[in-house]
Every structure is written in C-alpha cells, then in structure tokens.
C-alpha cells in the first residue's frame, strides 16, 4: 500500500528561513537546502533571500532542465498543502518551457569567438596608441578606447555569468578570469554575488545592492530611514552628510558615474581579501587581480608625463561611466519596495522594477542586450540575441495580466532618472523635517 503524502503549511515553510535552516518549495515539493547553500553555484544569497517560500518561478528562470534531476537529493518528504499558482505564473512557466523546446537557451559558441576577436582588437589598439605614438590626442583616444574595451568585457562577463556561452566550461572559466579579473580588474566572484542578489531582489531597497548608494545617491525617500542593507550587512546611515550629498544628487549623478568604476574595483578587492566571505577559487581570483594591477599601471607609466597619465586614466574611467548610466536607466526610475521579495510575485516584481530602452536593432550590441531589461530579468538564461525576438511575447503577456511593460527612449530614460533623483533631492532638502530614526511604520506599509 502506498504511503500517504505528508503536508506542511506555508506558515510552517516560512519558519525555515534562517541560516542553517533553509527550506524552499518547488512545484509544491519541499526541499531542505541548508547544506546545499554552502555549495550552490549561484552563492548562498539567493537561497537566503527566498528561503521559506515557494520559489518555482525563480528556479525555472535560473536553472536548466538538468537541474531538476538533482532536486530529489534535498527532498524533505513534505509537500506544500495550501499553495496557489497565479495565472501569470502559469503562463510564464509555459513560455519558459516553449523557449526551452525551441532551443532558445542554447548559446552559439561562435558568437563568443567573434566577441573575443573584437575585444583583442580594442585592447591591442589602445596599447599600440600608448606605446607607438607621441601624440597627446592619440593617447587621449587610447584612454577612451580602453574604457570602451572594459564596457565590452563587462557585457561578455555578464553573458557568461548567466548562461554557458560555450560548451567547454573550463574555457568559460578561463575567459571569465581573463576578461574580468586580468583585463578589467573586476572579480568575477564579486560580480556573481552582487548580480545574483540584484536579480533575485530587483529594486528592493534593503536587499538589492544595485540601488544602495547612500550617502551619494538615494533613489527613494524611504532610504532616509537608515535601512539595513541585507547584502552588505550594515546600516545605510542617512545622516547630515548623506542629506547634503543627496540634496544635489541630480547634479552629481553624471560626474560620479564617470568614476563609479573606482567603487567596483574596491568592492572586488574587499571581497577577495575578506576572511568572512566564502569565495570559490579565491586564489585564481586574486592572481587575476594581481595581473590587472601590474599591466594597467605599467601601461600608464609608459606615457611621457603625469599630465597625460592622469588624462589617460580619467578618459578610460569616464568612458566606462556610460555603462554605469545604462545600468541606472534600467532601474533608477522604476518601482521600489522594502523587504525581501515575494517569490509568488516573481513576474510582477521583475516587470515593475525594470525599464526597457527603445532603440534600433543595430544598437543592441552597444547595450549588451540590456536595453531589453524586462526580458532579461524574466529570462536571465536567454542569450542576448534572442531578447528582441521574444519581446512581443512578453509584451503580450504583460498586457494580458494588466502588468507594466515600461519602455522609453535613451534620452527620455535619462530624463526620468534625473527627474526621480531631483524629486528625492528636494525631499532631502526639507530641513524642517528631522532625519528619521526608524522604519517600523514605513516597512509595514510598503513591504512588497
């Protein structure tokens, strides 16, 4: 006689959401991923953020069909008894299955080889301009070219972090270390940790590190309440210094974007040198960073004087600021919330927190495909060259379920971001209101 199924309630599942006690549900089967969180390829943060919930949509979005074969290793024997699936989730899962059947998630390796050849051309051209020319203008152009090279490295690293861009995984790892750590100075491990948290908790003020820029920027007045960053594990103090800086953030946004790369370099080093954070293959990552901090200063030192050296560095960093602005356009003017994401609202939260940039197809390469940010957030494993193709289907699904599908031109998106920063800046300037000390009421009323 077959043994009857054992069930637990959503409330029972919700109690298993602490480090060392992490349970999740996928298609109503309950899994204990407490130990697996230490070995999870995507890091422990996604599991920590979503623990205690049914995470079927997030699992479908991030994992290939082969991952389903390993789930039984973590099955607790329990089933979720009171879980309901929304109509939008049903349609979303059907769409994922259809894309998988059509082979959309299978990347074509030759595209990566073309990209690597293009990157090699950019890098060699920049270095050649420094070493083989006496012209100040050529040196300035070479600095800008280096920045453009870093942007394209970023797009390739981004792609390889979301899906296997080639069949040979060892080559993918080598390529990540090369274009990320060695040539760009950015740790791939740091990027994966930060970027996964961003995707899972898109536009959560206390869980999404991409919008946690206090004291320099505040995308929402809710950040005036000194929220605790769950990613950085520290309070984002909104003090008098932060109030002053935020009051002028609509003026400082573009100048600071030119040097945002400094923060990325620092964050990479802080993670790799930290003894508190677990980093897979830390030695490889560190050696890659050493390579960068040897060749880049050495190249700069080959310039004839300090004026041109500073000019080269400023040019290379400023050009990469374009990429930082692109990231901001996708999220800084969208909807924000406080608290962890609700896995049952996966589709809704991803569409509410993102903005597409309208442009001609020939410019998709410039954006790294992230001009289709909504599609990318809903289908992160999908190669960028399919995003425009599936856009009408996503738009239709959003319309069917009365969900936002926000898009704007590049210039309008800039205006929207500056407009939001200006609105928050005006609120920060209201010195008649004291700096808030807590977020109890705000967190209760805005929790998403």
Automatic annotation (TrEMBL):
Transmembrane stretches, by residue range?
A: 112-131, 137-158, 170-191, 253-274, 286-306
Regarding the membrane, this protein is recorded as: Multi-pass membrane protein
User: Which residue ranges does the record assign to the Cytochrome b5 heme-binding domain?
Assistant: 5-80
For this protein, the record's SMART domains field holds:
Cyt-b5
What pathway is this protein a component of?
Answer: Lipid metabolism
SUPFAM superfamilies in alphabetical order: Cytochrome b5-like heme/steroid binding domain
Listed A to Z, the keywords are: Heme, Iron, Lipid metabolism, Membrane, Metal-binding, Oxidoreductase, Transmembrane, Transmembrane helix
Main localization category: membrane
> CDD domains from the entry?
Delta6-FADS-like
Checking Pfam families in the record gives: Cyt-b5, FA_desaturase
Q: What compartments host this protein?
A: Membrane
Family note: Belongs to the fatty acid desaturase type 1 family.
Q: State the name under which the record lists this protein.
A: Cytochrome b5 heme-binding domain-containing protein
User: Which species does the entry assign this protein to?
Assistant: Xanthoceras sorbifolium
Classification lineage: Eukaryota, Viridiplantae, Streptophyta, Embryophyta, Tracheophyta
């Amino acid at each position: 006689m077959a043994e009857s199924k054992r069930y637990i309630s959503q409330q029972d599942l919700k109690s298993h959401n602490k480090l060392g006690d992490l349970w999740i549900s996928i298609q109503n089967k309950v899994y204990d991923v407490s130990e697996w969180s230490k070995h999870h390829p995507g890091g422990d943060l996604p599991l920590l953020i979503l623990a205690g919930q049914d995470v079927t949509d997030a699992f479908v979005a991030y994992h290939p069909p082969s991952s389903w074969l390993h789930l039984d290793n973590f099955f607790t024997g329990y089933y979720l008894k009171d879980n309901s699936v929304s109509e939008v989730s049903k349609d979303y899962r059907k769409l994922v299955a259809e894309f998988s059947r059509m082979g959309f998630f299978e990347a074509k390796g030759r595209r990566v080889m073309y990209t690597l050849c293009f990157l090699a051309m950019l890098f060699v051209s920049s270095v050649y301009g420094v070493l083989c020319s006496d012209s100040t203008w050529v040196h300035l152009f070479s600095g800008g070219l280096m920045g453009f090279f870093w942007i394209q490295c970023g797009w390739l690293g981004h792609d390889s972090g979301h899906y296997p861009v080639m069949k040979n995984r060892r080559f993918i790892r080598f390529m990540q270390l090369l274009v990320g750590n060695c040539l760009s100075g950015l740790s791939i491990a740091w990027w994966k940790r930060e970027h996964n948290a961003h995707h899972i908790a898109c536009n959560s003020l206390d869980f999404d590190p991409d919008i946690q820029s206090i004291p320099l920027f505040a995308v929402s007045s809710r950040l005036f309440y000194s929220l605790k960053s769950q990613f950085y594990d520290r309070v984002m103090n909104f003090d008098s210094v932060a109030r002053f800086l935020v009051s002028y953030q609509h003026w400082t946004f573009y100048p600071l974007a030119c040097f945002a790369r400094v923060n990325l370099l620092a964050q990479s080093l802080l993670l790799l040198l930290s003894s508190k954070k677990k980093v897979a293959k830390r030695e490889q990552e560190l050696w890659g960073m050493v390579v960068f901090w040897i060749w880049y200063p050495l190249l700069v030192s080959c310039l004839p004087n300090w004026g041109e050296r500073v000019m080269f560095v400023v040019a290379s960093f400023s050009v990469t600021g374009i990429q930082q602005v692109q990231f901001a356009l996708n999220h800084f003017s969208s909807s924000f919330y406080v608290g962890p994401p609700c896995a049952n609202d996966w589709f809704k939260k991803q569409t509410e927190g993102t903005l597409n940039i309208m442009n001609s197809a020939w410019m998709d390469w410039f954006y790294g495909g992230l001009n289709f940010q909504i599609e990318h957030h809903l289908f992160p494993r999908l190669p960028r060259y399919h995003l425009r193709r599936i856009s009408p289907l996503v738009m239709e699904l959003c319309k069917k379920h009365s969900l936002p599908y926000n898009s704007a031109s590049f210039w309008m998106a800039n205006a929207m971001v500056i407009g939001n920063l200006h609105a928050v800046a005006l609120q920060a300037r209201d010195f008649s209101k004291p700096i808030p000390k807590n977020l109890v009421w705000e967190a209760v009323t805005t929790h998403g």
